[in-house]
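Recall that a protein's primary structure is simply its ordered list of amino acids. Everything else, from secondary elements to tertiary packing, is in principle encoded there. The following example makes that idea concrete.
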Amino acid sequence: MKPIHWLAPDTFAVWVKPRARDNRIVGVREGALHVQVAAPPVEGKANQALVELLAEVLGVRHSQVTILSGERSRHKVVRVQGIAPEELQQRLQAALPPA
């Protein structure tokens, strides 16, 4: 599996597929974390589902996960604050499905 491309120690790219069967991390796609969310891309529901999924998987509060760009796109840039960068990268790597 390809590695996640980190834009900063706490910032990474995410590729989101809305209207999926369930909320889950699929893997890595072109350097971005590939995530599926069940919510439709209407009124920010898919963005909210993404933030909730990442917060749950990473063990942080929703307020610590921020979408920096791409709110109206499948390609997003996400920052996770309040956790050491090394710990963040380890938790995200552990959340990836086995290759």
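The chain has a mean pLDDT of 95. The helical segments are 45-58, 85-95.
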